[in-house]
Amino acid sequence: MEKIAEKRRIVLVPIALQGHMNPMMQLGQALNLKGFAITVVVGESNLVSSSKDFPDFQFVPIQESIPVSQIQILGPVEFLKKLNRTSEASFKECIAQLLLQQGNDIACIIYDELMYFSEAAATEFKLPIVIFSTASATNQVCVRVLSKLDAKKFLIDIEDPEEQDKVVGNLHPLRYKHLPTWGMGPLEQFLEICRIVVNKRTASAVIINTASCLESSSLSWLNQELGIPVFPLGPLHITAASTNSSLLEEDMSCIEWLNKQKPRSVIYVSFGSKAHIETKEVLEMAWGLSNSNQPFLWVIRPESTPGLESLPEEVSKIVSAKGYIVKWAPQNEVLGHPAVGGFWSHCGWNSTLESIVEGVPLICRPFTGEQKLNAMYIESVWSVGIQIEGKVERGVVERAVKRLLVDEEGACMRERAHVLKDKLKASVRSGGSSYNALDELANYLEKK
Ligand code: UDX
């Protein structure tokens, strides 16, 4: 697409959670490169951390109705309902101010699907609106299936193995037991939020951070079901490779440590920005990793292990012999480092994409929501990883690390991950499916 002579403005509405912020800022970067001006509307407390690396973007604060830290206290469903209820008025005010400042040049509002309050302002000011789903296309399918279920019947069906094993919408191997209800609080409330999120209301398109080589059947299903254009233009972190939207400070010293390790010898361990781990599990992990005799780089966010200020001395000693611990890592650099041979992950969608893009096989330990679904895809659809199920005990950890880094089985998974890596890289190159989808999106937005 030709660069647009006069820049049209896109307003982005991210939710300030790391796993959502990263792809939204990458999308902004990709659209900025296509010639659009970008405004990011974000809660006051995240303004500084989000704006420092994007000098070309305009950042506009909205009054923070409820800080994201409340998600742990209220639970995801109550938090989202409250956030949306209380943000609507301040967002309308914000858009009104933007229109006054800039004339009527907002091409479109693109909002994270969880920030559905954005729609009221779009309707009031007659602005086009597009939904951005930062998780997988298969998760979109699942949320849509869930939105049509009756909670009482589903709770009965959960007890019936035959019902649970039924395939969802001909999307083999996706079964009802994989629907991501895990850790989302009371089912009835979760289904209610699913119904709100999937209601596309006045949105004219949906953007998904995925590629057709990863999820072609789910994307076909969505194309048929939605009746509006779907743009699968990921993985966005390749398209917008220079983007850094980390809300936490990255500890770069781990790269120096990696430089001293043998090629493909290190297991990188990180469970994203939200997971909580019990002290007992951390200690079993420490023993298992050490007993595997492979070097390991381990991200332990201080708030991920409440009650564990530091590792007990005895454990600390064994850990420091083979491992390196940081509070937050430059994950993409780590995964792209030649010393890294495997990733023990919680299987958040970003981590999943980032690992495959570097051809790194995974050990999957999902915690909540769609992570279990991603883990199922990693293990059973793409065959680039193994799952740790049940209790995390040192013997299980040691075995999983050896399977991935030492055994022939791991080498085969790495080979398959490399094939997928090549496909993903091709999809964002000129003529590739995600490259074309981004082009089509830019053309579509230009006409809005
Ligand atoms: C959440 C959900 O858990 C996830 O399932 C959903 O798909 C998106 O929102 P999160 O748990 O944080 O996200 O996981 P993930 O999606 O993997 O995102 C984490 C991001 O933080 C990744 O982009 C990763 O590169 C980054 N990260 C993680 C770092 O930069 N450094 C780290 O040390 C760890």
UniProtKB/TrEMBL annotation:
Keywords: Glycosyltransferase, Transferase. SUPFAM superfamilies: UDP-Glycosyltransferase/glycogen phosphorylase. Pfam families: UDPGT. InterPro entries: UDP_glucos_trans. One of its GO terms (molecular function) is quercetin 7-O-glucosyltransferase activity. Belongs to the UDP-glycosyltransferase family. This is Glycosyltransferase.
